[in-house]
Design brief:
It contains nine helices and twelve strands. 27% of the residues lie in helices and 16% in strands. The model has no long low-confidence stretch (mean pLDDT 89). It has a twelve-stranded mixed beta sheet with strand order 7-8-9-6-5-4-3-2-1-10-11-12, covered by helices on one side. The radius of gyration is 19 Å and the shape is globular. The protein has one domain: Aldolase class I (TIM Barrel, Alpha-Beta Barrel), CATH 3.20.20. Helix 1 crosses helix 8. It starts with 10 loop residues before the first strand and ends with a helix.
């Protein structure tokens, strides 16, 4: 379906848990107040919402967390969502710490893509920024995912004076493994308020100084809004998700379902529709609630406005609580 601004909304990010086995400093550095499992959507409820969304034309689903693989039975949920009539693509985002256990099952299911978060190739920096994570586990998962033929993407958040010196090493993973490496500007949400990110305009400029043959790649890589570049003869590509320096609200095609059942039309704002009451009603009532939420999607975010975080409308929850 289309929203009030003529945008086709066909993509839903689905958070299945607020739990995570890492404590990344820009996400949940001090952990978060976990809600009881009674407040988290059951898999059956998630599947029902996905079916209703598919009936409105949402045909692509991204499974997120927290860390989705910390919730038992995640693979079965992915399999069931893949089987929903009208759902064309199901992908998953993970920190890669336990992904190696599920590679074969994901391949058997026919997962359409795996996004793996990785911000540094330095073991000490990795442990610091993730609150104790093991770099070798994530690197191993990336290699296994690519070797298994899964559509693999690495998501990297660059921070000033922390990992900006690794731009070329991170980008080089694309050429080494034949995968997509995306640089994502840090969103000023939750703990991200205090992080000093780097503009993707600067990142691209520095990459082109190293690799002058880096040219725009117009081929489709996923659900958007990343802009990709490729070197001639290279298997992998480098992408940029630039919510701040390259505002893409006019082409936004997504909504987000939190693990507690709130449908968020925009990451920037706290506003959303609690779908849990509608789960007690009919499928048509649930579908209409989703439709109404999509029609309330704002025209654009306000991250670029001065003091936006104090206006009483913007999102203050941690990224793990809203699904990113």
């Amino acid at each position: 379906m289309t929203d009030n601004y003529g945008r086709k909304i066909d993509y839903m990010r689905v958070s299945i848990t607020d739990r995570c086995d890492l404590r990344c400093r820009y996400c949940m550095p001090e952990g978060c107040e976990k809600v009881s499992m009674a407040q988290i959507l059951t898999y059956e409820e998630i599947e029902r919402i996905c079916r209703a969304a598919a009936g409105l034309g949402i045909n692509r689903i991204k499974i997120t967390g927290g860390e989705p693989f910390v919730r038992l039975g995640c693979i079965d949920l992915i399999r069931n969502i893949k089987a929903i009539n009208g759902i064309d693509e199901v992908t998953v985002t993970t920190n890669g710490q336990t992904l190696d256990r599920y590679i074969n099952e994901l391949k058997e299911i026919g997962i359409d893509g795996v996004n793996i978060s990785l911000d540094t190739l330095d073991p000490e920096k990795f442990a610091y920024i993730t609150g104790g994570g093991k770099l070798e586990r994530t690197v191993r998962s990336i290699g296994l995912s690519a070797a298994a033929g899964l559509k693999t993407k690495v998501n990297c958040l660059l921070q000033r004076s922390f990992n900006e010196d690794e731009i070329f090493d991170m980008a080089g993973l694309a050429f080494e493994h034949g995968i997509d490496v995306r640089f994502i500007e840090i969103m000023p949400v939750g703990a991200g308020y205090s992080s000093r990110g780097i503009s993707n305009d600067e990142v691209l400029r520095r990459l082109r100084e190293r690799w002058p043959d880096l040219e725009p790649d117009s081929s489709v890589h996923g659900n958007g809004p990343a802009v990709y570049y490729r070197r001639e003869g290279a298997a992998g590509a480098i992408g940029f998700i630039s919510a701040l320096s390259g505002k893409f609200c006019s082409d936004c095609n997504r909504v987000r379902l939190t693990s507690q059942g709130q449908l968020k039309p925009c990451l920037c704002y706290e506003a959303g529709t609690d779908l849990r009451p509608y789960l007690a009603g009919t499928d048509d009532e649930l579908k209409e609630a989703i439709r109404a939420a999509i029609l309330e999607k704002p025209e654009e975010h306000c991250f670029d406005e001065k003091h936006f975080e104090d206006d009483g409308r913007t999102e203050h929850r941690l990224m793990s609580q809203i699904g990113g």
